[in-house]
Amino acid sequence: ANDVDAEEADFYDGSDALKENNSPEKNLMSDQMSKLLFEAMDKLPEDLRMAISLRELEGLSYEDIANVMDCPVGTVRSRIFRAREALDKVIQPLLMND
């Protein structure tokens, strides 16, 4: 396997090139994107919003979300897929400006 060894990973992790990506402009863009994402999530139907929130914000597995929402795992997958599709429509125009 072509795995990076631990020393290389440490070096890469501390790389200045990565830190420079944290420019004020990039931070502003990510703040704007976060704001738009949360606004877009608010507009989702309740079932989609709950599924995507449990997945992305709470980090729950599909099985756990199915238990919380009392529905089959397939329904959870479908809701998360539809929520991501809707959120992508909000994000894509922003990414085009980069």
A few lines on this structure:
With 98 residues, the protein is mostly helical.
Count, helices: 6
Principal-axis shape:
elongated
Rounded to an integer, what's the Rg over CA atoms?
18 Å
Distance between the termini: 35 Å
**Mean model confidence by pLDDT:** 80
Question: Percent range for helical residues?
Answer: over 70%
Q: What does this protein look like?
A:
By secondary structure, the chain is mainly α. It contains 6 helices and no strands. The longest helix is centred in the last third of the chain and has 24 residues, at 73-96. The chain is elongated, with a radius of gyration of 18 Å. Mean pLDDT is 80; it is low at 1-19.
List the helices and strands and how they pair.
Blueprint: H1 6-13, H2 16-20, H3 24-43, H4 46-57, H5 62-69, H6 73-96
Helix pairs in contact: 3-6, 4-6, 5-6
Features:
mainly alpha; single chain; disordered N terminus; 98 residues; elongated
